[in-house]
Structure formats: structure tokens, C-alpha cells
Amino acid sequence: MEPTTTITAQLESFLKEKKITVSQFAEAAGLHTGTLSNILNDKKTISMQQLDKITSAMRLEEGHFYDLYIQDCFFHSSPDWRRLGPYLNRCAELNKLDYIRQTVHLMLDRLSYAPLLFEAAEEFFRNGKRAAALILYESLAETEKYQHSERLALCHYRLFIINLCEDQDLNTLAAIQFEPYIDRLDEMYQLDALNELINVNISLHRWQAVELLSQKMGHKAMIQYEQSRGQSHPYNEPNKPLVFYVLYAHLSLGNVYSQHGDYETALEYADLYGTADWVDSPSDEEAQIIYQFHEWSEANRYMYKLMRGQAEVLPEYIDYLSTRQDEVFVGLCRIVAASNTYHFNIDPVLERFDSHLRLKDQEGLFGEVNSLITMDRHTRLLAELGLYYLNNKKFQKGILLVLESLESSIKIKCDSAILRCVGLYEQFRHHAPAESQNRYTILIREVQKLNEKKIGFSLGYM
Amino acid sequence: MKRKLAFLLATCSILSAVAVVGLPNPSNDSEKPVKTTITINSHGVGN
């Protein structure tokens, strides 16, 4: 068992060992001699700033005494937010997450600290210290007394955002855990939370959830829009003008119907978000949004017609895409899928837009397109392209693309995409060169590992 | 004798049927064009 000690005891030993006087050390550390004496005589609790100065003067690494600080200031004496706040901040800066966890654990019984911890979590979240924020939000959510409090709902919203990653299984879990809290959020956050949740569910292909959430978002946004009319500065505004959420709800619903192969209804929705004549004298920002949705409506009309087998719209669609660089990637995804369904040649299109086939962040009027959706799209585009070349008897190229898609499907842990690639490869495996066969063996081993992990077996598979 | 004749006739008819239709070739399936089963999200999705 290690002997317990205190920061002041260690400082005293240091001064003794190095034969330095208190005033000499105080000068080196940039502290008043009186202050240092009071600290050494336990008459004054050490502040974070003083602790960092002392640590630096002792030539120790930053945060060296942070574990002892928990014992000295929060465990053996009554915690004070004047010390606790700066301590949590420094731990977050130095990424000493274990210390944050220990400290927050000590605070959990003191419910009066909850508002302060929540403020700290919000600050961490705003400043991009997400790992630190996560610990605070999780602890607050666990100890929240009132199940319907807005703070609890906001904690779950933040946890949902922080937990999103490339892994679709984890994203499904994050979405399911957050869904029940949407209606408990403050109105100010509800529409953005619905928007985020819809996008995550789209990337997960949970179409029923997308449909319900889109209906909810459209309904809520329309009510808020009606209420805000005539008010110069409506309170509790979401991130974007309300018209965006109404139109995006229609677009998302149209997308759901297109996924089910109901292109007629999808086209009806395209009309709904293509014209927003219900908006009274739109502002410049609103007019820009309305125009953007009008553009998407036009593009999606081409797309849905193409998916219905109307190959004659392809030249017009290509013309449309060639003047709108932001839309080329999505357009290509659909064109390849349509060509695989109706078997028309798209070699010139692929050649023309070759540079758009690589994975890169997609930008638009509203900033970056949801990266989870872009990853999912690209994974599926690779498989569709592979299939296109396989159908056209360009077997090596096709197999290579199917394997690339398989690798990407494993990365995002998407079962349906993995199965699709395995099915395609197995169908054409006798055309695969030795190199591709080896790559497939390695990848299928990864699939096996993933599967065993999922069903709870050990990871001993070789 | 009649039974043997009936058996021979049945065997011949099966063999001739196989000769007409042909044994399934595992590589034939892959030569058929495959339709797509996955659709990709519309323009504007992900914003």
C-alpha cells in the first residue's frame, strides 16, 4: 500500500531536499511568500492557479498533483465550486478524464451542484471538450431527480450528439436512447434535435422512424411558424428559419417514399417542397432556403423519374448536375442505381464525373452534409458501381469496387451493406483474381470478428 | 422382364431430359444481369 501524502507534505520535502527557502521558492513560482507560507501551514487552501505555479516551479509535469488535489480539496474537506470549477476546467484542458470522473462522482450526492455541473458541461460542449462534457452529462442524467425536466432532456440530446460515430450499431443505440426525450426538450432545441435525429435515422435506414419524426418536425415547425407570424423577434428561435424545417420534413418524407419504391408519392412531396407559396413576404434568408428546396425538388423529380425507368430524362438530369457541383455526388449515386435496375449504359457519365466518385465531405448552402449519410452513400455507391461493371462483364474492376464497398461497410458496421457485398462477391467469385481472393479472405475474417463480437462470443477467431 | 424394361425406359427418359435441359452450370447465374436492391437518398437529404 502506498503511503498517503498531501500536496503540502510533498512541497515541504521538496524544499528540504533542495535546501530552498520558502521565499526563494515563492519567487521562483511567482507567488507571494505569505501566501506560500499560509499554504504550507495549512491555513489556506491551495487554488488551481497556485497549484499549477508550484508544480511548474518543482519542474514536474502539468497536472502532477491533480489526483492529490481531489483528496485535499474535495474528499477531506467540503467541496467549494470556486475550486471545483477551475479544477474541472484544467482537467478537461489536460484531458485528465479519470480525475473528472472521480470528482464528479464525489459531487453526485450534492444535488445543489447539479446546475453548476450542467453549466460546466455546456461550456465544455461549446468549446469542443466533448469527452469531458460526456462524463458530466452522463452523471447529471443518472442523478436527475425530475424525469420530465428540460435539463435531463438536454443532457440526453448532448449525449446523443457526442456519441455519434462511424459505427452504425452505436448510432442506433444513441438514437433509440434519445428518442423518448425529444418532446421534453425546450422548444428552442426541438426542431434541431428532430433534424439531427432524422438524419441519423436516414443513415441507419430506419425508414419508419424517419417517417414519424419527419411528420412530427413538419407539424411542430408549421405550428411555430404560424405562432411567429407578426412577431418581429420570436423568442426561442432554432438554428435555421422555421421554413427550413417545414420544407425539410417534406423532403425527408419524399425520400422515405422513394426508398419504398413509391415514386408517385415521392413526386407529390417534391411538389410540396418545390413551392413554398404559403410563406408571407420571405426574408432574404428564407428566400434563399425556398430557392434551394426548389432546386432539390427539380433534381429529385429527375431522380424519381429515372428510378421509374424513364431513361429519357438522363440527358436533362446530367445537364442539371453539370451546373450544380454540390449535387453531382448524390446524382451519380442515383444514376448508377437506376442503370443497374434498368440496364442502360452510363460509361460516358462515369467518365465525365470521375472526380466526384471519391469519398469527400459534401458541402451545400447549409454547410456540411451529414457525414454519416455521406459515408453510407459512398459505401453503397461503391457496391452499385461494382455491380454496374460486373453486369457489363468488366469483372476485375467490378470485384475491386465490391471489395472496397465491403471494407467501407465493415468500417461503418452496416450489416445490410456487408451482406450485399458478400452476395455480389460470391456470385462472381470465379472471376476474382488471386489478389482479390486474398483480400476477400482478410475482409471476411473481419466480418466474422464483428459478428462474433455482436453475438457475444470471444474474439479468438483467426 | 417387364419390370426391367420399365426401369430402362424410365432411366432413358430421365437421361434424355437432362440432355435436353442441360445440367445446371454454377457459372451461368453470374452472367445474368443483377438488379439493384438498394436505393440511395434524394438530393437535399442530410442537411
UniProtKB/TrEMBL annotation, chain A:
Q: Check the record and name the SUPFAM superfamilies matching this protein.
A: lambda repressor-like DNA-binding domains
One Pfam family, short name: HTH_26
What protein name applies here?
A: Helix-turn-helix transcriptional regulator
- Give the highest taxon in the source lineage: Bacteria
| Sample GO molecular function, one term | DNA binding
Q: Which InterPro entries match?
A: Cro/C1-type_HTH (IPR001387), Lambda_DNA-bd_dom_sf (IPR010982)
- Which residues belong to any copy of the HTH cro/C1-type domain? 11-65
What transmembrane ranges does the database entry give? none
